[in-house]
Specification:
Number of strands: 2
Protein name: IS110 family transposase
Order of helices and strands: HHHHHHHEEHHH
InterPro entries: Transpos_IS110, Transposase_20
Radius of gyration: 22 Å
Structural class: mainly alpha
Pfam families: Transposase_20 (PF02371)
Keywords: Coiled coil
Shape: globular
GO molecular function, one term: DNA binding
Largest sheet: 2 strands, antiparallel
Number of helices: 10
Strand order of the largest sheet: 1-2
């Protein structure tokens, strides 16, 4: 192993891992803390749904559905919930409210960092990219010039299809899901928002997104748009330019 490391280090073309700056590490810590809280809130929401299912009370998925339905469930005296069960569900929901407050605190700190960052301000001119995604891009990927091509950035994050050879033909599979799953998830979430509003727009990206969603479905389109967004980010960062809408 030691010999292989020495040999690799002596090769001038060997790719290297860029060390994060202190500012990037600080931002990444904030982002990871927020992400952990969001995951914990999701677990708690699913726990409450499971508790209610035991009593034959079913509600849809998602935090917003829970917030909308739970007050009327707790006030319904005829739904089978006894005093103890009702109080336990209420305690679980109170815990979620506490998590909400912590998430808001971390999000405010991330947004504060984004307001003071010229890079983050530039990134937010692109569609589907808000302050949290912008700061995650900066903290996770750093200097985009480390990637020789836009495709290299997409490959690094795992938003390009895997390729297989079969019978002399190249077959495209699902995305590789390499790299940081949190950033990939944020980009796909942003891509979904791009697709949602694309039908009301007439720029090149929106028309392409609508066409792809109609042909391949929203899930495939969301990954493809996320890939496109990352390539746009690469161009913006390497050229130090804001996003420019292409009408043609």
């Amino acid at each position: 192993d030691a010999r292989a490391i020495c040999e690799a280090a002596s090769r001038p073309g060997m790719p290297t891992v860029r060390l994060k700056t202190v500012a990037e590490q600080d931002a990444m810590m904030l982002i990871k803390q927020r992400d952990g809280l969001v995951r914990e809130r999701t677990r708690q929401v699913n726990r409450i749904r499971g508790q209610l299912n035991e009593y034959g009370i079913f509600i849809g998925q998602g935090i917003n559905t829970l917030r909308r339905k739970l007050p009327e469930i707790l006030e319904d005296a005829d739904n089978g919930l006894e005093t103890l069960g009702r109080s336990l569900v209420q305690l679980s929901y109170d815990y979620i409210v506490g998590i909400d407050a912590q998430i808001e605190l971390y999000e405010n700190k991330i947004k504060e960092l984004a307001r003071s960052s010229a890079q983050a301000q530039r990134l937010q001119t692109a569609p589907g990219i808000g302050p949290i995604t912008a700061m995650t891009l900066i903290a996770q990927l750093g200097d985009m010039k480390q990637f020789a091509h836009a495709r290299s950035a997409s490959e690094y994050l795992g938003v390009v299809p895997r390729q297989f050879s079969s019978g002399g033909k190249t077959v495209l599979g699902g995305i590789s899901k390499r790299g940081n799953s949190q950033l990939r998830s944020l980009l796909i979430h942003g891509a979904r928002s791009v697709i949602r509003v694309a039908r009301n727009k007439d720029d090149k990206l929106s028309r392409w997104a609508v066409s792809l969603a109609e042909r391949r479905g929203n899930n495939v389109a969301a990954v493809a748009v996320a890939n496109k967004l990352l390539r746009i980010v690469w161009a913006m960062q390497t050229k130090e330019q804001e996003y420019r809408v292409m009408a043609a």
